[in-house]
């Protein structure tokens, strides 16, 4: 049964990008991020209540709380950049760059945490890097159409902040129940997201969001929460060495759905890039 939860985690994580892409088509990406974070916050605390870790919140040290807050700020920055990138670019190009945060995380872990990088891991990291580069192909421009390339900048920032999230979270989660740590971080993300909305004076636009966009924005939050629920349930009952690689395959789900639902074309170069990324991800799990 836990294997089904692992695939459920990958599935929900994979379609999150698709639902968000549809939802932010006519909506400011920062406002959309703030709205969906409300849904995610509800899910994260729901998980805490399920596992019964809410009573341990008073046992969190000041240092752990500080790093959890910093991790939350990095998460918020990553989400804001990721959904801005999705609004400007294609899912099948933004997602691989965001997933490359795995490589950045390993490099930072080596530099800051002293974690070792074996030759196997190095090969896996190189494969992910090469695959990501292959998937960043320029669109064919017809009739001198102006293409907004800012998505690449925001996608890269998303990956950087996502990797910082992992490093800061690694330190902050020490001695803290993981689900509770995630819930606390989500509170920080919510505050940050709405702060950005109010600073940019986008809060009044909430009344202009059409029902369809609002629905897909909320659904993207629900799928993120569902992914978390399935992921932690799978980890609780199954083997991490199997759950983690299955969850990482969410990139395949995202790109398949972007092809069939969003009609985003996948070139041969991008296809082989995806294959190399998947192989590189699986190689990283070899001990």
Automatic annotation (TrEMBL):
Family: Belongs to the EamA transporter family.
SUPFAM superfamilies reported for this sequence: Multidrug resistance efflux transporter EmrE
Superkingdom field: Bacteria
Protein name: 4-amino-4-deoxy-L-arabinose-phosphoundecaprenol flippase subunit ArnE
Keyword Membrane (UniProt): yes
Residues in EamA domain copies: 1-136, 150-285
InterPro entries per the UniProt record, alphabetical: EamA_dom, EmrE-like
Membrane-spanning segments: 30-52, 64-86, 106-130, 151-171, 183-201, 213-234, 240-262, 269-286
Alphabetical keyword list: Membrane, Transmembrane, Transmembrane helix
Pfam family for this entry, one: EamA
Keyword hit for Membrane: yes
GO CC entries: membrane
């Amino acid at each position: 049964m836990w294997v089904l939860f692992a695939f459920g985690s990958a599935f929900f994580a994979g379609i999150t990008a698709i639902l968000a892409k549809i939802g932010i088509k006519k909506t400011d990406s920062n406002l959309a991020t703030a709205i969906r974070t409300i849904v995610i916050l509800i899910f994260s605390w729901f998980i805490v209540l399920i596992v019964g870790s809410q009573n341990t919140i008073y046992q969190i040290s000041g240092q752990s709380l500080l790093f959890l807050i910093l991790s939350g700020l990095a998460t918020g920055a990553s989400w804001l950049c990721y959904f801005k990138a999705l609004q400007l670019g294609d899912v099948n190009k933004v997602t691989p760059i965001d997933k490359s945060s795995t490589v950045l995380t390993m490099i930072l872990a080596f530099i800051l945490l002293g974690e070792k990088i074996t030759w196997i891991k190095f090969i896996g990291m190189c494969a992910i890097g090469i695959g990501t580069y292959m998937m960043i192909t320029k669109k064919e421009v017809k009739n001198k159409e102006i293409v907004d390339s800012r998505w690449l900048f925001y996608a890269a920032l998303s990956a950087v902040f996502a990797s910082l999230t992992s490093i800061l979270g690694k330190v902050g989660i020490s001695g803290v129940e993981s689900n509770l740590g995630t819930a606390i971080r989500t509170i920080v993300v919510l505050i940050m997201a709405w702060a950005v909305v109010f600073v940019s004076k986008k809060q009044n636009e909430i009344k202009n969001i059409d029902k369809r966009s609002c629905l897909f924005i909320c659904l993207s939050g629900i799928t993120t929460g569902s992914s978390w629920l399935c992921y932690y349930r799978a980890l609780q009952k199954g083997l991490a060495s199997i759950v983690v690689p299955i969850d990482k395959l969410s990139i395949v789900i995202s790109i398949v759905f972007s092809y069939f639902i969003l009609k985003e074309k996948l070139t041969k170069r991008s296809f082989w890039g995806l294959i190399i990324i998947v192989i590189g991800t699986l190689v990283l799990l070899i001990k």
